[in-house]
Design brief:
Elements: E1 3-5, E2 11-13, E3 17-18, H1 24-37, E4 41-43, H2 51-61, E5 69-74, H3 81-95, E6 102-105, H4 114-126, E7 133-136, H5 140-149, E8 154-160, H6 170-177, E9 180-184, H7 196-205, H8 209-218, E10 223-225, H9 232-239, H10 248-255
Parallel strand pairs: 3-4, 4-5, 5-6, 6-7, 7-8, 8-9, 9-10
Antiparallel strand pairs: 1-2
Bound molecules: NADP nicotinamide-adenine-dinucleotide phosphate.
NADP nicotinamide-adenine-dinucleotide phosphate (NAP) binds next to helix 9.
């Protein structure tokens, strides 16, 4: 596993489990399988409706809390300061923990001043209810605005990022600022996995197209990825990307725009 340094001196495992659409007993089972496969970074959100199940699976696992990296996100209907704080505290209760490692504003909401929402995030961080603060779905200029308004570093921007969605504007700035970019939908739900170049490169390394696509993200440095997987096969496949390296030529080839 690669660990990405965060401004608070801690770090984020570069590969995590995305949990959107995992519900009820399926969610508990998948989180349990993920922990057994070595995952220590779990991504959820109040909007996903699965924090209770994730909290249960984590509590039952016996994995020490300090080994886990837990991210949750507050939804757009809770951007006012009091609402945001209450929503985050409700998430903590459901997750059966006194803190998350990273708390994100799930989406921008122009109806509430960003300053107010960031004030809530800061208060929660000050109280130790989150160890880092961050944003999600913030394009470059909005990330800059959040950085200017926040009283502590924005540790992460979680955005759609994949071979098909390279985020060319955001990445150089985030890398330079040491803001971790967390890639969501990193496999584009499997859409591009039939690409011949992925298969050819994978064959050279004894890896699958999904593993090449995830490795391409992680190997850029400063990027974490949170693919969702529903079973042991995909879970193990996706975390099996830390025992090989793409060549510089392969990295460039995959980056090249395609018709
Ligand atoms: P994704 O991870 O790109 O794709 C998930 C799909 O890919 C599932 O159908 C899964 O199948 C399949 N898959 C997983 N591993 C595979 C493999 N090795 N080979 C072939 N297929 C594989 O898309 P996503 O679920 O949209 O995104 C991942 C996570 O990002 C979400 O779960 C959520 O945590 C986060 N997210 C955040 C936001 C936000 O606004 N911040 C928005 C969207 C998503 P199986 O399920 O059958 O394994």
């Amino acid at each position: 596993m690669i660990h990405l340094p965060l401004p608070n001196g801690r770090s984020m495992p570069a590969l995590g489990l995305g949990t959107w659409n995992l519900r009820d007993n399926d969610c508990v089972a998948v989180v349990r399988m993920a922990l057994q496969a070595g995952y220590r970074h779990i991504d959820t959100a109040e909007m996903y409706g699965n924090e209770t199940e994730i909290g249960q699976a984590l509590a039952d696992s016996g994995v020490p809390r300090e080994e886990l990296f837990l991210t949750t996100k507050v939804w757009t209907n809770h951007h006012r300061e009091k609402d945001f704080i209450r929503a985050a505290e409700d998430s903590l209760r459901r997750l059966k923990t006194d803190h998350v490692d990273l708390l994100l504003i799930h989406w921008p909401n122009e109806a509430v001043a960003l300053e107010e929402t960031l004030r809530a995030l800061s208060r929660l961080a000050h109280q130790g209810k989150t160890l880092s603060i961050g944003v999600s779905n913030f394009p470059l200029e909005l990330l800059k605005k959040a950085q200017a308004l926040a009283d502590r570093p924005i540790a992460c921007d979680q955005v759609p990022l994949s071979l098909d969605h390279p985020q060319d504007a955001l990445l150089p700035y985030a890398f330079q600022q040491k803001v971790v970019v967390c890639a969501y939908t990193p496999l584009e739900k499997g859409k591009f996995l039939g690409r011949r170049d992925l298969a050819e490169i994978g064959k050279r390394h004894g890896k699958t197209p999904a593993q090449v696509a995830l490795r391409w993200l992680i190997q850029q440095g400063g990027i974490a990825a949170i693919p969702k997987a529903a079973g042991s096969l995909h879970l193990r496949e996706n975390i099996g990307i830390f025992d090989f390296e793409l060549t510089a030529e392969e990295m460039e080839l995959l980056k090249a725009p395609r018709n």
